[in-house]
Amino acid sequence: MDGMGDPEFADIEAAAERIAAHVRRTPLLASAELGAAFGTHVEFKCENLQEGGAFKSRGAINAVFALAADVAARGVATHSSGNHAAALARAAQRRGVPAFIVMPRGAPKVKRAAVEGFGGRVLECEPTLAAREAAAAQLVADTGASFVHPYDHPLVIAGQGTIVLELATTTERPDVILVPVGGGGLLSGTALAARHRWPGTRVIGVEPAGADDAFRSFASGQLQPQGEPRTIADGLRGAMSARTLRLARANADSIVTVAESSIVAAMKLVFDRLKLVVEPSGAVPLAALLERKVSARRVVVVLSGGNVDLESLPWLAPSPGAVEAAPGAPLRR
Question: Which amino acids are annotated catalytic?
């Protein structure tokens, strides 16, 4: 794979070997109670328990450890609102090289603290994509660091696909894998891996209705503008790239959208029933089951991250229009 080409399944296999010593094989939890409520056998891939608190560690480690030593020594750089930033800072720390991170003002405090805890050097910018890209480009020009895009990078996508290789060693082939989609790196890598390892498994991306550019892009085959995303799921506010849209349309089956109230209800349900804390983005796939958007015999839900401020859990201070649970949510004991 050249640095600009699309990843192939062999690159995902290579990524699994490269990252093995640096990431956690996250647990897969089943819930008979939730399975009965949804009418399916449901299992949860707990990437909220991943090193750094999110699946992003997979792609970041793969990208950083693939760099030649002389290139890596100049450091790595990115722009990110949180999870990729922390993952890249952690990867750089493990390789012993600097990490330069552009973060928008207003990024969750818990995520900025994670970046700084891993030794990342944070530069704040205005909370727009244009400002993030400009600041990151200037950092690269000033430092000579290698830019590692949060999702539009073949090594990052290959790293995210390793989730499927782990699943294949721990469970039967599911009928459906549900993953959150923002920029599309996780969806692209998961779908590519599943097509080769588990032909016949449907991979479905789930996106907030208030940030539905991926849904519209997947349907039309052309990149659609994000506009001004309105969602609690801060990790899913990014727009797909040409690469991730191309890979998603070639390998994934569909993208569905869910309401904000369902995302909050899904977060609370994971806490109540699995005793796990997930961030809004990580709860989005479960919201598709709450809304009955998916029907299948065996489902794997990827809980993508757990980096949430415990003092700001949304069900403790509901936003206007929020509800206790989505229609059909299994709330009775």
Answer: 56, 304
